[in-house]
Amino acid sequence: MDTNPQTALDVVAGVVAKPRVLVLFGGRSGEHSISCATAGGVLRAIDREKYDVVPVGITPAGRWVLVEDDPDRWAIIDGRLPEVVDGPSRVLLPQAADEAGLSLLAPDAAPSALGRVDVVLPLLHGPFGEDGTLQGMLELVDLRYVGAGVLASAVGMDKHFMKLVLAGQGLPIGRYTVLRPGAFERNPVAWTQSVALLGLPVFVKPARGGSSLGITKVDDLAELPAAIAAAQVHDPKVVIEAGIVGREIECAVLGSPDGRRPRASQPGEIVVTDTRHDFYDFEAKYLNEAGVELTCPADLPAAVNAEVRELAIRTFEAVGCEGLARVDVFVTPENRVIVNEINTMPGFTPFSMYPRMWAESGLGYAELIDELLQLALTRPTGLR
Ligand SMILES: Nc1ncnc2c1ncn2[C@@H]1O[C@H](COP(=O)(O)OP(=O)(O)O)[C@@H](O)[C@H]1O
Ligand SMILES: [Mg+2]
């Protein structure tokens, strides 16, 4: 049941109050700085005539602090990665579903009210942000938020369960194996043989990672133990995939109001042109813009374009996604489309693929933010 239907349109003294948006970013994952960069873009573009903004950063240690509402503070400039720094006061969420307000807790002082929040915009990537944990916390107190719910976030984050869900619904994925914590160490010879069956190269990945952190392309089985150890820096569970030869194509999906079908953007293509990168790794994604070409729309035959968009929507629906997601696929030389992954909180700076693909499809960055906020403001809380 929707216990809080009024929040989006609270009437205060005869004036329709602006929805108050908690822009939440930073966080505990390895993608902390990327989240800050996204927040910089959003703080610059969000329509201040229409929304009040409360920027809240989460430090790498997980502390919630009120931060500067300054887009420049959060940009990646000359390779310097922004970070939320701790301060003396803490931002507290409402403690119960019938309390809509945030509080600020300062040392040696009683908690002070920070006012109500109508919607949370969680611009968090990776574990403890994009993986359902934060979403669960917001569900508990009936706070509306942008994007996927608890289950879809968790499934989208975990490449193991993502593959199970996609395969279970007949979507095309590549071959892979999963190393649970400790499994390789117990039997390295058997595991090396089973990885060899995938054929080389393989991609060794943290199951719940992002931004290519901890991923190694392995061309020689002798490199396997080191690659597994590198992935385990991020996650004790590791996914190993057969390398797929194909173009890297992405598609942005946006939820629709009133139970209508989600929308798919024009697909984009990523071509890593700098040969120092073996694949689309962390440096290629964020630190070497000149070494990567992002093309939108991707130059695809019409039938392949349509298939990518259809598969992107089916992937979005397969994991029960809401709001937004970027679906990444490979298109093989024979024009087979294979789903690589779904990202329930994709990179969202104005230069990121998700907003760029929408811009190319006729929806600008500020309007995109507005659409996402409106979708979240009008969706009911509780089971949907
Ligand atoms: N099975 C694969 N075959 C070929 N390239 C891959 C494969 N898996 C990953 N890659 C390369 O590694 C990059 C990052 O992998 P991805 O699964 O998207 O992880 P992340 O969640 O960190 O973005 C991809 O964009 C692609 O360049
Ligand atoms: Mg990816």
UniProtKB/TrEMBL annotation:
UniProt signal peptide: none
UniProt cofactor note: Binds 2 magnesium or manganese ions per subunit.
What EC identifiers does the entry list? 6.3.2.4
Coarse class of the primary localization is cytoplasm
Q: Which domain of life is it from?
A: Bacteria
| Binding-site residues, Mg(2+) 1 | 328, 341
The residues listed in the UniProt record as binding ATP, with positions renumbered to this chain, are: 159, 203-205, 211-212, 241-248, 340-341
> Would you kindly state one Gene Ontology biological process term found in this protein's UniProt entry?
cell wall organization
Which cofactors must be present for this protein to function? Mg(2+); Mn(2+)
Which EC class, in a word?
ligase
Pathway annotation from the record: Cell wall biogenesis; peptidoglycan biosynthesis
Residue stretches making up the ATP-grasp domain: 163-374
Protein's name in the database:
D-alanine--D-alanine ligase
